[in-house]
Amino acid sequence: MLYKRIIPCLDVMGGRTVKGVNFLNLCDAGDPVELATRYANEGADELVFLDITATHEKRKTLVDMVSEVAVAINIPFTVGGGITAVDDALALLHVGADKIAVNSAAISRPELITELASRFGSQCVVLAVDARRTGNRWEVYLNGGRAPTGIELFDWVAEAVDRGAGEILFTSMDHDGTRNGFAVETVAMLSGRFPVPIIASGGGGTMAHFADIFKRGKADAALAAGIFHYGEMSIPGVKQYLADHEIPVRIK
User: Is 157 strand, coil or helix?
Assistant: First the structure.
């Protein structure tokens, strides 16, 4: 049986965890190491750490902070932000990351996905995609949601999977931080079309939203941030609700 995963996300800026709505109006949400420790203790299945301004500021990921988080937790750990080359990924893996997430750099140079998958294996490479609905299509954005690319979501995911991406982290910019529910129909299409795990991100606000993204959306994992950071929901509470609704999850 494949368990569905609950993944808290640490969006980090200036050494602090932040959260906003639709990628705007970012507010402080706490110390990354403290939050990571709490989530690992509560039974999170994995943790995602995204240095959300690294690409925009043209710098590398905060390696020292990644190392601090890695020491504090004992669950799989994905890191993204500012990774433009194999050596960048190697530095993060050496300090404790388990998987590498690429976004803007992969759009600018898709060969990066191939290089990472060839060096570390597809299981280590996560394609993070930020997209917004424009009419009847989804457009991919880069630089932390700042810049539209004109690239269509499904075309980009197809290329990335062909190049070796082993997992897709799809964030709906329209749903991000709204707590109105995930982009269920789009996630279901991604899950049905591609042979890799799909992580749904953006919009989780109630227990029912999590059940919906797993049942109708066919997601392999659901990622959330603010609802966990601010104590509106707990990981054990979400997991118990899912278990009660016959969705397979690991209960700590």
Answer: helix
Q: pTM above 0.85?
A: yes
pLDDT band at residue 152 using 50, 70 and 90 as cut-offs: very high
Q: CB of 55 within 8 A of CB of 143?
A: yes
**Which CATH number describes the domain made up of 5-244?**
3.20.20.70
Whole-angstrom CA distances from 113 to 55, 160, 210 are: 16, 7, 30
Q: At what angle do helices 63-72 and 86-94 cross, to 10 degrees?
A: 40
Contact partners, residue 94, CB within 8 Å, separation at least 6: none
CB atoms under 10 Å from CB of 67, counted, come to 16
CA angle, corner 123, sides to 61 and 73, nearest 5? Answer: 55
Q: Is the pLDDT of residue 89 over 60?
A: yes
* Percent of the chain scoring above 70 in pLDDT: 90
Contact between 82 and 59 under an 8 Å Cβ cutoff? The reply is yes
Helix (H, G, I), strand (E, B) or coil at 172: strand
3-state secondary structure of 93: helix
Please identify every residue annotated as catalytic: 11, 130
- For residue 8, pLDDT beyond 50: yes
- The whole-angstrom separation of Cα 40 and Cα 28 is 20
């925009």: which residue's tokens? 56
Q: Would you list the domain boundaries of the chain?
A: 5-244
